């Protein structure tokens, strides 16, 4: 799946069904507010993008690092969790590291791509690359842990 699906604050149920979807994002108000667009949603792999808006910039007129982190973290979560299956568990971050290499600027569209590096039992490791075209802006490594879904024992 490589076609885009724009997440907007309005109902996600009105999105075309032929576009990539991920069950985790159905109620993800933070991703909706950031305007994250799903490009790919597959088990162990995800690719998303967002445009840097004025309200995402810091006092230096570059994207706030937290915005790049939020994009990478969302992509990581999508790769960790199956896009459609709900087996009574969720996979969450147990720890992450991020390295910012270059700034993102107002009006630019940046992309995050997450790939599973290793998974054993309830633990996993995922790498996320944050890019602007061919330009590498940051690298994120996430460590995951699978737990019972809240409200399910």
UniProtKB/TrEMBL annotation:
<feature type="domain" description="Thioesterase">
    <location>
        <begin position="62"/>
        <end position="137"/>
    </location>
</feature>
<dbReference type="GO" id="GO:0016289">
    <property type="term" value="F:acyl-CoA hydrolase activity"/>
</dbReference>
<dbReference type="InterPro" id="IPR029069">
    <property type="entry name" value="HotDog_dom_sf"/>
</dbReference>
<dbReference type="Pfam" id="PF03061">
    <property type="entry name" value="4HBT"/>
</dbReference>
<comment type="similarity">
    <text>Belongs to the thioesterase PaaI family.</text>
</comment>
<keyword id="KW-0378">Hydrolase</keyword>
<dbReference type="InterPro" id="IPR003736">
    <property type="entry name" value="PAAI_dom"/>
</dbReference>
<feature type="compositionally biased region" description="Basic and acidic residues">
    <location>
        <begin position="12"/>
        <end position="21"/>
    </location>
</feature>
<dbReference type="InterPro" id="IPR006683">
    <property type="entry name" value="Thioestr_dom"/>
</dbReference>
<feature type="region of interest" description="Disordered">
    <location>
        <begin position="1"/>
        <end position="21"/>
    </location>
</feature>
<protein>
    <submittedName>
        <fullName>Acyl-CoA thioesterase</fullName>
    </submittedName>
</protein>
<dbReference type="InterPro" id="IPR011973">
    <property type="entry name" value="PaaD"/>
</dbReference>
<dbReference type="InterPro" id="IPR052723">
    <property type="entry name" value="Acyl-CoA_thioesterase_PaaI"/>
</dbReference>
């Amino acid at each position: 799946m490589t076609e885009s699906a724009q997440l907007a604050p309005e109902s996600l149920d009105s999105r075309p069904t032929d576009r990539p979807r991920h069950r985790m994002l159905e109620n993800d108000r933070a991703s909706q507010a950031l305007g994250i667009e799903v490009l790919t949603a597959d088990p162990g792999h995800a690719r998303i993008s967002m445009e840097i808006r004025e309200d995402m910039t810091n006092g230096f007129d570059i994207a706030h690092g937290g915005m790049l982190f939020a994009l990478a973290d969302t992509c990581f979560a999508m790769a960790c969790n199956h896009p459609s299956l709900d087996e009574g568990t969720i996979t969450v971050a147990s720890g992450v590291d991020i390295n910012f290499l270059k700034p993102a600027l107002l009006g630019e569209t940046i992309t995050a791509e997450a790939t599973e590096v290793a998974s054993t039992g309830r633990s996993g490791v995922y790498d996320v690359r944050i890019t602007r075209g061919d330009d590498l802006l940051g690298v994120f490594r996430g460590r995951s842990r699978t737990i019972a879904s809240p409200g399910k024992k």
